[in-house]
Design goal:
Strand content: under 5%
Radius of gyration: 24 Å
Shape: flat
Helix content: over 70%
Distance between the termini: 8 Å
Number of domains: 2
CATH class of the largest domain: Mainly Alpha
CATH superfamily of the largest domain: MetI-like
Number of strands: 0
Order of helices and strands: HHHHHHHHHHHHH
Structural class: mainly alpha
CATH architecture of the largest domain: Orthogonal Bundle
């Protein structure tokens, strides 16, 4: 396993280098001259030149690329162009609120999705199964904006169960998590149900039934264990999204998370913040892919890492 981990880490280096070069080209070449964005429409040539020197964009491209790589190695992306705050401090302070919402949301979505998928698969082909699938299709067709508006109006404004805005205690977390669960549960249930049904028709399931194993044990032990690999792949592939948060939820509820910060950075053309978050998400994606491969063997000992 150690050799596998070392080899995968070695493969990450050129991949990460490619991501860094791509991000650099997109923001420093395709994105245009940031000095014009910061100087404003009324700035003269001397002011623009001064801003270019201050940002270091008057240097040759290879020098700027090397500076960018050094920043990544030191986890220091300089200062925000909009606020003057260190980018590393922005990410560190915004990550907590995003995780406070999305970490419990991910756990609830996964556990609830697995339980409902097994329950629906248990009555597969019945009227209940068809009704649930139709309800999921309808739920997936509704925009998240509709969920936010309806839940805010009904549960927060009319009933007063939750605060609409602000950031503080658990009461401010409950409604965004509830909305996120309502939005994500339908596609998750449909996907997990398909994973479970793929296993239900396998030979080992028929063998277990032929030996007299009860249907509940077949579903919760035999089927779930083998369906865990695609479920694990789906969940782990979504984990990097925890770093950027749920954009609309954070924006509508005033949550000072990374998702809201990304929106503000785009609106302000704050390239250092956007580049830093892009690089971090790319690195997290590769790390979570490695963890997924390692967890495969923990879930199913038959999987060999090579």
């Amino acid at each position: 396993m150690l050799a596998f981990i070392v080899r995968r880490l070695g493969q990450m280096v050129p991949t990460m280098l490619g991501v860094v070069v791509l991000v650099f080209v997109l923001f420093n070449w395709v994105g245009g001259d940031p000095a014009y964005l910061l100087a404003g429409k009324m700035a003269d040539a001397a002011e623009i030149a001064a801003i270019r020197r201050q940002l270091g964009v008057d240097e040759p491209f290879y020098v700027q690329l090397w500076i960018f790589i050094v920043e990544i190695v030191h986890f220091d992306f300089g200062l925000s162009w909009a606020t003057g705050e260190p980018v590393s401090h922005i990410i560190a302070t915004r990550l907590g609120p995003s995780l406070a919402v999305l970490a419990p949301l991910t756990v609830l979505e996964t556990v609830t999705g697995i339980a409902l998928a097994l329950a629906v698969a248990f009555v597969r082909g019945s009227l209940t199964d068809r009704v649930v699938m139709v309800a999921c299709t309808v739920a997936m067709s509704v925009s998240i904006l509709v969920y936010i508006i309806v839940f805010q109006y009904g549960l927060a404004y009319k009933l007063g169960w939750f605060p609409v805005q602000g950031w503080g205690g658990p009461r401010h977390l409950a409604l965004p998590i509830l909305i996120g669960l309502a939005v994500s549960l339908a596609p998750t249930l449909r996907l997990f149900r398909s994973f479970v049904l793929d296993e239900v028709g396998q030979d080992y399931v028929r063998t277990a039934r032929a030996k007299g194993v009860g249907e509940r044990r077949v579903m919760w032990v035999h089927v779930l264990r083998n369906a865990a690999i695609p479920i694990l792949t789906y969940v782990m592939s979504n984990l990097p999204a925890l770093l950027i948060g749920a954009f609309l939820l954070e924006r509508f509820f005033g949550i000072p998370g990374i998702g809201r910060e990304v929106i503000l950075a785009v609106e302000r053309s704050d390239f250092p913040v956007i580049k830093a978050i892009t690089v971090y998400v790319a690195a997290a994606t590769m790390v979570f892919n490695l963890l997924t491969d390692l967890l495969y063997q923990a879930v199913d000992p038959r999987v060999k890492l090579s």
